[in-house]
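Recap for those who missed Tuesday's class. We walked through two folding examples back to back. For each one, the amino acid string is listed first and its predicted structure tokens come directly after. Nothing is annotated here on purpose, so try labeling regions yourself before you check the end of the notes.
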Amino acid sequence: MSEAVTALGGASSAGPVAQVEERALQGMVTLRGDLSELAAAVETVTGCAMPDKRRIVQAGDKAVGWMSPDELLLLVPYAETSQTVAALEEQLAGRHHLAVDVSDARASFRIEGPGAREVLARLCPADLSPAAFGPGELRRTRLAQVPAAFWMEESGTFTLVCFRSVATYAFDCLAGASAGEAVGFLP
């Protein structure tokens, strides 16, 4: 059996605005269904409460992000992904749902530094002003020409998730946006 590896082998780039780095392997489970029927199972399996619209909730090394009115993204340690899907299947037996391990189909990046907001603002049509986007917020949008989702942690660091098939393009866009001089419009 082959060993799992990240899409870009831990690529990183440091610019004057921010640093971009590929994150280590991350367990990711897409869970779809009527969110009101999924809440108890999600909390039992992850320890996270159900997130509000466009939010992400964390509990230790697990998190649950709201992706759409009928979809959640569960983040768990990579080694626990299969067990998480199995536990969800057990908890949701008899209820209409879909739980799928999408870990190896995704890539994720960390964007940090004083200009992290600006890096994403250069590439995404989302309002990233502090009044509109803060810690715990999650946006599913476009990064240049590809679909992506990102959220902000309390530290001001952003995590971005995209399809693994466009990881090189996404990294190159992020690295390019972090290489320019700071505009200073977003704190």
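Example two. Treat it independently of the first, because the proteins are unrelated.
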Amino acid sequence: MEWLLMAVLSAVFAALTSILAKCGIRKTDSDLATALRTVVVLLFAWVMVFIVGSAGTIGQIAPKSLVFLILSGLSTGASWICYFKALSLGDVNKVVPIDKSSTILTVLLAIICFGETAHLAVKLICTAVLAVGIFLMVEKKKTEEKEQSRAWWIFAVLSAVFAALTSIFAKVGIDGVESNLGTALRTGVVLVMAWVIVFARGKHKELRSLDRRELLFIALSGIATGASWLCYYYAIQHGKVSVVVPIDKMSIVLTVLFAYIVFKEKLSKKAFVGLCLMVAATVVMAIFG
């Protein structure tokens, strides 16, 4: 099944996105970085649209699909803004597990909205195991910066909620729409939303003083995001949401590995157990989904 391979590739590119983005927001404001990344993603997405020749089908998109694609784009924009704000405040190994908890809400919504009730008991048990794994991975920082710690946690949770809504809206919106075209249209919504926030907060003034090295990482992060999205929404369109999403969230394994290699962020024994539980639950859901 081709959509399973796409779901796996989506996870690989998503892991690269987190690490590259972290490298690009050490000095650069997270909102500005999000807006810049979105420009790259949009260009990448439209290149793919013209390569597959689906640009001419825009006029055939049903109003319902268009509305849900827009809602999906708005949810994505909100999720990105919260996610990269959390990354700028907290450790990758702590932010990513919370963000990946969107799997729990997505699976529950897929069961309710799309009737994906096959092996329901297995899915619910795995969802509970995922929750335990996330709880174990998110350890409290032993620092004096308590307020900042709370801030990254709040932004990470909001990121997960909006990410879950993104998957559900996208599943409805992409029905009957070529997946690359759907991705490009959604990205356009995210782009507008991201730059409105940048200009509203006066952060566009920081464009002149951007660090070139960070700008490169932001661009690379955008390319990785574009590749992840194209694979993900192809898988969403042709497969089951309750199967595709858990596979996509397996990117956490690679993210943790990359975080150790690049940032020397080590996992404690407790966090490692949590990671193992998350991986086990995800694999089972992917198999029995």
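Answers for example two:
DSSP finds twelve helices and no strands in the chain.
Residues 141-147 have pLDDT under 50 and may be disordered.
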